[in-house]
Amino acid sequence: MMMPLRILAILSLLWIVSSPVAAEPRQLYVQPSALVQLAEYLGGAPASTQADFAALVLESLVDAYRDEMAQAATVRTDDTGRAHRMQRWRRAMDLELQRLQRSQLSLMHSREASVEVERQGQILLMVEGAPLLVSWPRVAAQVEREAAIVQRFCALHDCPRTAEPGAPRPVADPVEVRGAWSFTQQGGAGWESEDGVRCAFPDLSHRAERETLCRRVVAELQTLAAALAGVRRDGALIEWSRLVVADEPGAGMQRVTVNARGDYLLVPLPALVREAVDWRAASRWLTRQLDGIPAAETVLHL
Q1: pTM of the predicted model, to two decimals?
Q2: Where does the record locate the signal sequence feature (predicted)?
Q3: CA–CA separation, 70 vs 78, rounded Å?
């Protein structure tokens, strides 16, 4: 006997819902890096401003490729196959370095450049009409190099504030994090932000370096809180006990897994991965931040 079409349709729907495809993790959010956000903002900037940005990016790229080739030159191997692969890699790197240097020279002479951001989120420089996609040779050093470019550019030009119309998506700035040092008998020495994130230290030595470190951690937690608030408003499920932050190979960002299915955000949070953050305390602080409740948590013990 032929099964009614309605029952077949229901069974098909149940199979689709229960299939592994339906349970695949979803990318909920991608936070552009500070450099990409700045490039987005510069789309309508004067030509001279865009040329300054392009010059700084090219200078940093040239330095990055030179450093990479210098490190590779120290590698020695007795494996013939690996030696051939290294030789091909060095030739490719050298060709890319030459291309970057030609673009750098052209820009120095013409001062003609424009800045765009591709749909995939990659920065595109147009130097005298020739396209150049910004691609770093080593992802691990990308965050630091991009931060240095932003810092140098913003020392020369007014950079956007997140409250301004048309400003890029917010990324917390460690310099703007407010807080102070404190010392208690129970908690010892520590630096605490005004919104309740505390870093505990064994003593009050090396205060400048430790304060800088804590500011970075606080800023990245603030950035993460803003991103999580956005995805929760969109209806995404956040399971705080499942929250995991880890490096995302090849992305220059970190993957923040938020639930058992593996749904995730991509956000630049290098300090939260590099430092020994107490994620139980950090999760409590994040939860209260999203709920609008004041919180005080020690998230780092050094």
Answers
A1: 0.58
A2: 1-23
A3: 19
